[in-house]
Design goal:
Largest sheet: 8 strands, antiparallel
Helix content: 10-25%
Oligomer: single chain
Distance between the termini: 20 Å
Shape: globular
Strand content: over 45%
Radius of gyration: 15 Å
Number of helices: 1
Length: 142
Amino acid sequence: MNKLASFLLAALLLGSCLQAKDLLEIKGDYLLYSFDFNYVYGLGNIVVKAKEFSITAAAIEIDMANRAARLSRDCRVQVGKESTTADMLDINLENLSLTFTSFKDSIQSWTLATQKKGTTAGAAPAVDAPARPMTFRDYEAL
């Protein structure tokens, strides 16, 4: 019951920060929301689904104030029919761009913009927001 309540709280808070077209579905074995720090921490079988991608990982940290998320530990990303793996994955929650980092033979980092650029009638042009640094928290303080 606690897992369900934590998940619903995290989903509601994340949903309130994102516009309706940018909702993320987050599932995991353990999800914790810290009201004091406006921070979500998750561990174990994490699944993040959006309209354009699906991600599985072992851990997630979401800094709601800075609108940034980091998934780690064997990240697998499915974008359309393309599948990619990385050791760490950062999500800019402003535009849902994905930044992959791999530490296998050498340190490699690359970005994948998942939102389509362009405008709709009466809307402002889409602009890439600069990546905001995450504020990392001591897990015992959450």
